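Morning!

This is the sequence you dropped in the shared folder:
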Amino acid sequence: MEFNPRIVRILFLLLKSEEPIKADDLATTLKISRRTVFRELDYIESQLKEYHLILKRRSKNGIEIQGDPEDKLILFKKIEKSDDFDPKNKELRQNRLITSLLFTDEIEKVYYYADELKVSETTITNDLEEIRTWFDQNGIKLQKNNGIELVYEEENYRRAVLHWIENCEADCLLDHDVEVILINQLEELQFERTSNLTRESYHLLLQYLTIAVSRIKAGKEIDCPGHQEEMAGKSNIIDDVIVMIEQQFQIRFNHGERWNLHIFVKGCKVRSIGVDYDEIQIENHVFPIRKLIYKMTEVFEPEQSFELQNDEMFVQGLLTHLNPTLTRLVYGLPVKNSLLSQIKEKYPDTYMKAKMAAEVLEEATGKRMSDDEIGFLALHFGGALIRIKQKQQKRRIVGIGVVCSSGIGIASLLASELRYHYTRQIHVTSVAQDQLSRMKEGELDFLISTYPLQSKMDWIQVNPMLTRADFAKISEKIELYAYCKERRKEFRKIDFGEAAAITNEIESIIKNFQIRYVPADIKFQDAVKEAGRVNGESAEEIEDIVLGLTEREKLSSQVIEEYKITFLHTKSNGVKSSRFMIFLPKGDVFSDPYFKKTKVIVIMLIPKADQREKLAVSSIAMKIFEEDDFLEMLKNGDRETIINQIQEILEEYFNDYMKNMYNKEEEETK
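The structure's back. Tokens below.
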């Protein structure tokens, strides 16, 4: 196979990724068009047979290379030899310099690296000063005496190499022959801990072992006295792995090597959930892990903190996650989050809040959390918020009456506390003692009192200062009434006229949907005229459509650069029913400056005569911005796929309408 620079980069990304990569992501990363990506993939697919590998393309999941790991390594080693290095690229040059310094134990002069990187000695000297910070952060001193030398403790060196491989994908620092042997041996051994590791952690463990074996073979062992008592008191799950490695490579793991491997495995991320403890101990420090979680929820989202603390899946998930996380923080172990870029892009608010919550752990450990670690926290918090939101959508507001013998002041205080903790889940009312007998059945769901009550209503007694046990009782009661005591749903006759209007609108949208390819350099006014010409049946209708789209655009531009879409819409007498269509460029993007390189122009037209508050065509517009896959479908222009998706959206809209007709009577009685 011949390797041009672009193919090398595509192969590198596919071979290094643990998950399939979408074509658009490849195009964005490589700064090439989607069509160019597919053209290169066609060539790659035909050549992979030489390496006994297969290129799998799935429209939804993405693209990946499948085959034996050893065959993948053979291909990877070949593309590593393909030199696509530009010495003028400062970041790439400095990355290569760090890799070279880590790769060799020889003390070389500045001119050696200047020659290797094809730049002047002055440039290398400046680069060395700039990369010194990275080495300092990883516990390595960069010294210049008779040459350039790295001074370090062995365990710091190995962790630095792991960090560098993960951040800059410098796989040349690994002995791939050793890696292949370890892959095969671990599979045969069926290492009991690896079955519960995440894919990223298993990959990191494999890299750690590869580095350890290579360094021990070179006489570079970790000298780590102590910790005998900690090791002796544990069932050492890594013994079988060590025995296998020692026999396979004819080396010996001393106590320091065993301890560091033990710590590394302890810091690996696991899949299963099921731990339940209040604190963990790492070396001589005890971390109150459950209290840390509660404090993190208060920092992350004060208004939702109580709901988060009572989400058992969230708490158990974090208990499982934070055990290895704290180990990694204390010992400076790396972790890889393959979803980090997607988390930052799609959930920026959740990520930023998780970053604030991470400060709780940073304060507890005295260590800074990496972006990868924060990304994992964001996933836990984000998942919990989604569950809370789903529960809130299904539940009704629970009515609570607060009764207190100390007077209205204490009752108001309790009511305020309840509102703060439960926010929109409840409606709280302060109730005087003499009001209880006059209350109508169903007026409130239950009562909260600081003393025993004589009442036929459901009630619970609490401490005036509301302990955690009190909150647990209250939460249990709220959950009972929020889901189990809904009013009976009553049937209401359907408005067949409105239902017929919806049916006609849906039929029109599907029947009149079009994909039209227009010149890539089309002007805004020409695009609007084309929309009028396609949808209007007379000169008056065409003019009305053009005028409506133009006037709407004057209010505020509908060119949405972040989504690479232009969204033109208006109410017009030029159409008799709703229309939805798209314009695609005869090229990669719309090149006229007005469109800011967007990839699709969406046209949505609504008849002025249709005075309904919510239209079926609006549901399509909402899905464009809610579902990335649908937006990508529009940009790609596959008519059959788009039509199928539109039909699903409209079917969901119609079904929701029918459900709302049945539920509207109940909503009006609340």
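Headline: Residues 176-266 form one domain.

More detail when I'm at my desk.
O.
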